[in-house]
Write a structure and sequence with these properties.
The structure is a single chain. By secondary structure, the chain is α/β, with parallel strands linked by helices. Helices cover 38% and strands 15% of the residues. The chain has helices at 34-46, 53-62, 72-84, 120-133, 153-170, 187-195, 209-215, 225-235, 255-264, 293-306, 356-361, 370-381, 397-400, 405-411, 418-441; strands at 2-3, 7-11, 19-23, 29-32, 65-66, 89-94, 139-144, 173-179, 198-204, 240-247, 271-277, 330-333, 338-340, 354-355. The protein has a 9-stranded mixed beta sheet with strand order 11-10-9-8-7-6-12-13-14. Strands 2-3-4 form a 3-stranded antiparallel beta sheet. A two-stranded antiparallel sheet has the order 1-5. α4 (120-133) packs parallel to α5 and α10 runs parallel beside α15 (418-441). The protein starts with a strand and ends in a 12-residue tail after the last helix. Pfam families: Radical_SAM (PF04055). Residues 84-326 form the Radical SAM core domain. Its cofactor is [4Fe-4S] cluster.
């Protein structure tokens, strides 16, 4: 037996010789009592066998201890390939219009706005695309995106009805969500979305009214904060709501105002707040206000702890693939029927991989060259962190996979926030579990595992 390369140990967390163990390949977390920690360290340093059979089995089950001939990188690669090329789920992010009623200062779609809506011909081709994939699907997952998708509710209604008919015919599970700025998400619109089985919405607030309105104004320069909060006041508890707070150096002192306001209005308990790091995507954020990943990781954890948020939602789990961009059946479709791998590429013509018309007609008159399609797909789909010269040597690789594929391609930027604060996060998570365990059972939290295997 040998210790896992992906063990992460925080020693002497309570000053009594005990330790906190986290394994990045399996996702296991364990609080080791001093005697067990000492025994494990002794085994690593001297080879003296662990005599406690129960403890030994726990170490093996959680992945802290592995067989001598077990190759962890191969295990990670197998999981990656299984996840990346799973054919049971089709994930579509659909942009029914590139029109937007906002002019956010950091928008990466600036320059790609268009007032047109998706044509019924494009809608029909999308449905044919889904039908061609339907025979091997277990689930169809749709995310409505923009622009501002609520400016084009008619295509959403028509496509949803057609998708649901296809899913019923092929016995496919259907789920849908929407990413909206929230300005048009009135109670009536919310009810319409629920009728369409759109059960979750992401809405962005960037601080108090002053800072939010300066960052996310209407196209005519008008404010948006009061309208969004008023809508939230009427719809919270009806539809699942995630409040994204985009953060950079300019508003980092104002993000708490969002939580405080939602609490004052009795909305907070029915929504899920989280921070989003503003990045310089497609040339946006030229004012250099973006935080570094290291600074953001510290800021984000402090935000979660201050607001007593469920740390399980932030728990760094081992990945199979990073996102829809490196998932074989993840596609983004714009209002003209262009297909992309990443929603950050929407509107950038040389980042297309095809069109829905090409897809269903298999026409020889391709609107996107084979070379372009191959280049984009190769960048997103062929990257392998287990073979990368930097990532393959990194203990954080199983929970990071090289970070955002788009950032890696566009900015040569690797890494997720966890590499900077995984110790602090695991400490906070373990303390929260310990507090809960004591509250429920009045017992000490000893050498046990929360395993993701």
């Amino acid at each position: 037996m040998k210790p896992s390369y992906y063990n992460y140990v925080i020693e002497n967390k309570n000053g009594n010789g005990d330790a906190l163990y986290y394994n990045m390949r399996t996702g296991s977390l364990a609080h080791m009592e001093a005697k067990h920690h000492k025994e494990f360290v002794q085994f690593i340093e001297t080879g003296i066998e662990i005599s406690d059979e129960k403890f030994l089995e726990e170490l093996k089950y959680c992945g802290f201890l592995i067989e001598d001939d077990f190759d962890e990188k191969k295990d990670i690669k197998i999981r990656m390939l299984n996840s990346r090329y799973d054919t049971s789920v089709l994930s579509l992010t659909i942009t029914p219009t590139m029109a937007c009623n906002f002019r956010c200062t950091y928008c990466f779609e600036s320059g790609h706005y268009s007032n047109g809506h998706m044509s019924e011909d494009t809608e029909e081709n999308i449905c044919k695309m889904v039908e061609q994939e339907a025979s091997h699907l277990e689930k169809l997952v749709v995310t409505w995106y923009g622009g501002e998708p609520l400016l084009a509710i008619s295509p959403i209604e028509r496509l949803t009805k057609k998708f649901k008919k296809i899913c019923k015919r092929f016995n496919i599970e259907y789920s849908a969500s929407i990413i909206t700025n929230g300005y048009l998400l009135t109670e009536d619109v919310c009810n319409k979305l629920l009728d369409l089985d759109i059960t979750d919405a992401q809405i962005t607030l960037d601080g108090d009214a002053k800072i939010h309105n300066s960052r996310r104004p209407l196209a005519n320069g008008g404010g948006t904060y009061e309208k969004i909060v008023d809508n939230l006041d009427k719809i919270h508890g009806k539809i699942g709501i995630a409040i994204r707070i985009n953060v950079d150096k300019e508003n980092q002192n104002e993000v708490q105002a969002v939580v405080d306001e939602l609490k004052r209005k009795g909305i907070y308990e029915d929504v899920f707040c989280y921070l989003g790091l503003v990045t310089a995507t497609n040339g946006s954020c030229s004012n250099c206000a973006c935080m570094s990943s290291e600074k953001y990781s510290e800021f984000n954890l402090n935000f979660w702890l201050k607001n007593d948020m469920p740390l399980a939602s932030l728990y760094p789990k081992p990945m199979g693939n990073y996102c829809g961009a490196d998932y074989a059946q993840g596609y983004v479709i714009d209002a003209q029927g262009n297909i992309y791998k990443c929603w950050s590429d929407v509107g950038v013509m040389d980042r297309r991989i095809g069109t829905v018309r090409d897809w269903v007609e298999s026409t020889k008159k391709m609107q996107v060259s084979a070379a372009q399609t191959q280049k984009v797909l190769a960048e997103y789909m062929l990257y392998d962190p287990t073979e990368d010269a930097v990532c393959s040597r990194c203990k954080f690789m199983p929970i990071c996979f090289g970070g955002c594929p788009h950032s890696r391609i566009e900015n040569n930027q690797l890494c997720e926030q966890y590499r900077y604060n995984v110790g602090e996060f695991m400490q906070a998570y373990a303390d929260a579990v310990l507090k809960q365990e004591r509250g429920m059972h009045h017992e000490n939290f000893s050498a046990t595992c929360d395993s993701e295997m």
